[in-house]
User: Fold this.
Amino acid sequence: MTKTELNSNSSNSSTEPGFNFAYLDEQTKRSIRRAILKAVAIPGHQIPFSSREMPMSYGWGTGGIQVTASVIGKEDTLKVIDQGADDTTNAVNIRRFFKKVCGVNTTEKTSEATLIQTRHRIPETPLKEGQTIVYQVPMPEPLFVIEPSRTEAAKMHALEEYGSMYVKLYEDITNYGYIATAYDYPVIVNDRYLMKPSPIPRFDNPKMNNNPALQLFGAGREKRIYAVPPYTKVKSLDFEDYPFSVENWDNKACEFCGSTDSYLDEVVIDNEGTRMWICSDTDYCNGQLIVNSLNCMS
Amino acid sequence: MITTFPGFNNLVHDSQSTFRILLDALSRPGTINQVTAQLTAPSGLNLACAAACLTLLDLETQVWLQPELDRSVQNWLLFHTGCRFTKETNKADFAVIWNMDRMPNLSEFKQGTPVYPEDSTTLLIDVGADNARANNRSPLLKGAGINEEITMPIDLPDSFWQQWQQNYNSYPLGIDIYFFTENKVIGLPRTSCKTNQ
Assistant:
């Protein structure tokens, strides 16, 4: 490590001494950056990368963290969510981690963030041009449930051989009368590659299509990076007579903010099994509460 | 002494900001993106191209330099990045081109394989300030990263666009290109298609 690298953190007193900016060494960042650029050039195609050990276990977002660490700069404002919430363990710890090793500004507001790392949700507030969203991915290979061999699955991608994925959805229809896949619902990106959107609910799939923000995906244990550039076609698989549809909650509204158009979580609130429904996206819910209180005052 | 020119002032932050510019350029093809890092480039490379080299190249990359590129460029790249050089275009991960009139056909570069389409050459082309404006011949681009259509903001020869059409047709195989003029970058990934006007 050169002298300038070591000194790069010293100007900012809030960062932890002894670490390079954003934790990873420059050599690692460069190889991940090259993988990210290739991923953008071939939307939906998984690029292998030399995933490093991170100071947390696989399965806690190491892929997303490595992508974020390679992209983040001192001018960025970072938001981290876990299932839509800014205040859950995974989100709080990852946000604290980047605060420690980068000294960047963090926020809970979707509209203020330049970089958003997410586990399993896309924020309800529409993303804008110039924003980047990084998904934590547990299993990047959509064909894994059909073809356990990586080598064979790679060949199927090369040949655009995705018929068996349709058969799986068709089996759902014969068994249940509808497509039962609720999360990680497979999509075709830019009319070519079959892609797993990470375990976001099916509700979020339409938000990926033609999104003005750049979407990056990192799978740490599986050592793969893939991407969807802005304004790119992302189509959820379906059939003409069984078109793709999103979840609905039979006109239930969030019990905090009253929203009827956001993704609702079911929460058990006592030992009798009483339930309530609340927004999964905490930032959106808080925003709606403010809007409601302003409306009451006026 | 193989080179007298320094690299980035601040290796960590300058390479990060340059990477973000390159990422923006490739994810929004046809847009003009400005490199903010300052450095003294060796003669033969403009500032943006030199910054991109320092950001992307290291000992893991094979680089093809267009012949007759100033010797000081090779020395400078070797000193600052430790990259390896190759004389074969179909082995190169990156190719640095300073004269588009005499560059090899796009199909002579590494195209990737059906299973690993990413194993292909990325071209870094210095187009010079003269070409750095759109004119009424400039084509419209369509494809991933482009909202509807965008005008290609640099003037490129027809022969290039013929080769580019072939490159586009062989998707997902093919090469990706960065064009550099002074301190500006324009990305042209393999997903970008020239539309008929």
